[in-house]
Amino acid sequence: MNEKHTHREPDGAERIKKAGRHVSQSEGLIFEKSVSGKRGIELPPLDVPAVDPAKTLGAEFVRDRVEGFPEVSEIEVIRHFTRLSTWNYAIDLGMYPLGSCTMKYNPRVNEFVARLEGLATEHPLQPDAVSQGCLRIIHDLQKCLLEVTGMDAASLEPVAGAQGELTGLLLIRAYLESKGGARKKILIPDSAHGTNPASVVIAGYEVQNIKSNERGQIDIAHFREFVTDEVAALMITNPSTLGVYEENIAEIAEILHSRGALLYMDGANMNALAGITRPGDFGVDVMHLNLHKTFSTPHGGGGPGAGPVMIKKILEPFLPVPVVAEANGRYALDFHRPQSIGRVRAYCGNFGVLLRALAYTLAYGPGIREATEDAVLNANYIRRHLEDFFDLPYNLPSMHEVVFSDARQKKHGVNTMDIAKRLIDYGFHPYTTAFPLIVPGALMIEPTESESREECDLFIDAMRSIAAEAQANPELVKTAPHSTRVGRLDEVAAARKPVLRWQPKQNLDAQKHLGPHEKTLVVPTA
Amino acid sequence: MRYLPKSQSERREMLDAIGAKSIETLFETIPAKYRLREPLKLPGPLSEMEIIDYFKARAAENSRGYTSFLGAGVYQHVRSVVTDALVQRGEFLTSYTPYQAEISQGTLQGIFEFQTLMSQLTGQEVANASMYDGSTALTESVLMAERITRRHRVLVAKTVHPEYREVLKTYAKHLGLHVEEFGFTASGQVDLSALRTEALNEAAAVVVQSPNFFGVLEKLGPIAEAAHAAGALLIDCVSEPLSLGIVRPPQEADIVALEAQSFGVPPSYGGPFVGVIATREKFVRQMPGRLAGEALDAEGRRGFCLTLATREQHIRREKATSNICTNEALYALVVTIHLCLLGKEGLRELAAQNLSKTRFAQEELRKIPGVALPFSGATFNEFTVEFPRPADEMNQKLLAEKIIGPLALGKYYPEHSKRALVCVTEVTPRAEIERLAASLRKILAAN
Q1: Which of residues 477-506 of A touch B (CB under 8 A)?
Q2: Where is B55: in which H helix or E strand?
Q3: pLDDT (tens digit, 9 = 90+) per residue, B79-106?
Q4: Looking at chain A from residue 379 to 438, which residues have their Cβ under 8 Å from any Cβ of chain B?
Q5: Which residue is closest to B324 within chain A, CA to CA?
Q6: Per-residue pLDDT tens digits for B225-242
Q7: Which helix (H) or strand (E) covers residue A332, if one does?
């Protein structure tokens, strides 16, 4: 191991247990391995007469081979993707303290049941009579989610949190229209998630930003002035991206309701509340849940997710079609809903994600409260052990995540991204650096309940060690990571001349200037 | 609880370290009035065995033992156990969006390979890292065309998947986007006469699907000509991408909205699936969704990172043009692995098998007295049949024979309640096609 890869205290003592080089092998693109005449899958023989595609389809429609498709054997496919996998960090390898993303353990039984014959194999348009199992799964999960949130009705159709946001906003819009006018504006605190304003725009509303006060909370006196007849709703993340519970949420709901507006709660941080308190009880009218966060369905490198929308009774007529209905133990998809906002996705949403979330819920039952408690305990434990080393811009009680800033390390020229990258050398995934926007140089840490005390201690050790390095040897931190297959990539150059695909040879030959594509054919890596 | 890695004594020690008397004190910012006093009324906790039993019981309440002739955007195709084994590696399954490129090279290179495969397949210059599914990919394609042309009308063929059109309408409604539909002819293809220049006046895009919802291939050339002559873009929706193993790619289209479920993704009662948008390089900055690009590190080593992120919601906030955040990365990986296994030859052979099987089914059904094939256009692995009686009624009777019959079209096209959409793929045994034909013959003869 190279000298710069070891982790020493400034006094020279090797103390950090969790550090090591990322094991990896060189691996080119699959296209660079292709050799004509190989394949990785054999098809069963055709049991009907073969037809001639050119004759059957006609010359104008027929295509020869798909050029640029790889020709590789099964073992090569296995090795290729297995090697690629070793270049990834994952929750299975260690703590993934990404604030607001809730990277918790993904139970394997969820994966097992999602692949069962009779569930994975079902077609979404098959008759309800032969879909009772699927429909009951959706219905059972819906009941569980309603109990956790204290809401009245739900749609499990949205396939991501952001799509849930949009659906919720469209429900608000449809409801207000039925009352005489959709209104114009949605209020959004500056401590909200980044997708919120984007969803508001897609729903045809204007965004009005609301500044948090010095306590990271909505200023009630100030807030009253904002709530005019033009306001359709407040869209609030609670706990906020500061990891802080909005103390006056019930009063905020009352103010909105008294002016005919509604309260939307972004439920992305529900991991801090499940089993402790219910949004439906403190005045929320609409919310979405990110099943891939609170309910443990894996993120899979960026998806799939699911973003069910939970609502109060008044909004029920407007739910997207179809709705799962139950009568006397029989389940059916109900399409006859004249006031519905329409469909937000084909078929019935991400059923495969829904069933994983139900498996998780069944594993905990009412014990889901303990998961919440452990998540909050972990966040506070980490906070306590790091607050003497990092700046805490909002000194408020933390829920499931804690937000520091890089103010102290900045004095040595080290910023939050540098610290994040250095964490990689210590065997951890970085925390979130981009949020919340109101904390410049944020370090947003969410350990989740999945972390043992030992893992929390290792993380604390790593962070303290980096704080010391930032003082004693800032260059070491600023040039991190030092242990990975590739170093920091030139993202600016990548965006200026984007190379977004590998090019087969004949495509390249056809081009006058090989330009930026040329280097995609240079085989050696690492 | 087996998913929680702490003992009671560890919890106690951690609380002591924080200086908290009890766990309850950590929740004191939540007013007592709103803190739950009773446990939630949830079923469970269940052991792993009990969880598996619950889901096995549900599986038994579904379509096991039935043969299905359903397609309509969701297809049963061969899958390899290799695919499932690889995507269940924790490093893929349990990783997050690859924002930290140095420790996400596996996901990023996988995406780059996915983008390449999708570009090659569609004959387009670039493809993104996946969208939620085909229906939302189509919707986002239309919003993209609106941004490119700054026009607000869109003409959508009635032969586009009806549920995709419904999703488009939900999104379009509050964005000042006018969605107008146009019809089809006796061939089952779009009615080109409906696309005269005046009809296309100020249109952002013409949207078609090929093979379309009736299974018929569209002639994209003349549609593209009409669209381009009016300054509109052509969007082609592909919900059965296996067709592209044997059918000429939609190169005339400016944007391709694709559903990649056919490539190794199980039907799973409707999701998760994998949408894709592919387009011309010049439109890439208007394309929603993530993109992986090649990049070099300081030592000149090749790597991959998310790129062109300035288009994305987390940078532009209320100026954002799309609220896409989560995508379907794991299933994009499934698609990538599956297509690598199939390869150049396998893909073609698989597509050819589908064509042969479908031709066989068409001939078998055509021979039944009273059954007609109403559309004359070329088809891939789906086709429309017309019965002398309502298709729903036929399907009721087929169900009694443990056959999930072709999709009755009356649900989407009330005027065509006697028509149904038959899908036959490589996994449909010849004997089952013959059994379908025999059952239909029997049902029709009985009346």
Answers
A1: 481, 484-491, 493-495, 498-502, 504
A2: helix B48-60
A3: 999 999 999 999 999 999 999 999 999 9
A4: 380-381, 384-385, 396-397, 399, 420-421, 424, 429-430, 434
A5: A162
A6: 999 999 999 999 999 999
A7: strand A330-334
